[in-house]
Design goal:
Blueprint lengths: L5 H10 L13 E5 L17 E5 H8 L5 E6 L2 E6 L4 E2 L8
Antiparallel strand pairs: 1-2, 3-4, 4-5
């Protein structure tokens, strides 16, 4: 399976309140694989934990080398760390 199933895609949109995890934009959103499809385990690459919601500009900036994304388990919750210092937790917590 290489495409993200609609059910999982919808969960990702809901998880991030239909906003970019990096800048908060609601415009032109993309579901992005944190561990790239070319190197990820084919059985888990489309798992919700490996997906993040990015707007077009943040998605392109990432793919053009502007920053890296890492998913971390902190106290049982997944946090998304951006190499340019942004940190995104779950939808109830603001970016710091």
């Amino acid at each position: 399976m290489t495409e993200v199933a609609d059910k999982i895609r919808q969960k990702v949109y809901e998880k991030f309140d239909r906003r970019c995890a990096r800048c908060g934009s609601a415009y032109m959103l993309h579901v992005h694989h944190i561990i790239h499809k070319s190197v990820a385990d084919k059985d888990t690459m489309n798992d919700e934990e490996n997906l993040i919601l990015l707007c077009h500009n943040c998605h392109m900036a990432h793919h053009n080398g502007g920053y890296a994304i890492k998913a971390e388990n902190v106290d049982g919750k997944i946090r998304y760390r951006f190499s340019d210092s942004f940190l995104f937790g779950d939808k109830d917590e603001p970016k710091t």
